Amino acid sequence: MPTFSFEHLKTISDLRSKIVVVGQGGKSTLSRALSKKLNLPYIELDAIHHLPNWRERSTEDFKNQIAIVLAKNPDGWIMDGNYFDVIAEVVATRAETVIYVNMSWRVMMWRIFWRSLDRIIHRKPVCGGNYETWRKSFFSPQSLLWYLIKNRNSVINDRPGHITKLAKDLQLIKINGRNALDRFYAQNNLSRG
């Protein structure tokens, strides 16, 4: 399937009904907005992957749980997450479209920083009912921010290859940068709220 930017879509109704959204700095908000607009169930892989107290499911259990959720929604869904190995094995055979939210390093880090701060201050549940803390979000080796800093080159250089491989037989739509994401929301009457 061809890769194209979202500007080539006439409307979001041109999207197929089994959609995976990947990337950093906007994928979950976009997924929820698409879910609402297209009236498709929203599946958050982080909520499936994480158990209470930030425990993680085993890879096999994670794959099984995803398969169960997908089987319950045969007519379509919007899914987000960056679990590329699991997505490639379990989801790609069922997905029809991959949307890649490709933010610059600076924008991605800024958004993740402010999102974490907002979640901590307002005690917003995330990832299957867990809560971010100052320690977990900013000072822990498991912090997403620290992971991205330590793995900056692989995130920037390897991610596009993972996504291209993941979407080799699927419709792949790239949204490159904050301005493009804003245009996508505006052109399709999507709400971030």
UniProtKB/TrEMBL annotation:
This is Adenylate kinase. It comes from marine metagenome. The lineage of its organism: unclassified sequences, metagenomes, ecological metagenomes.
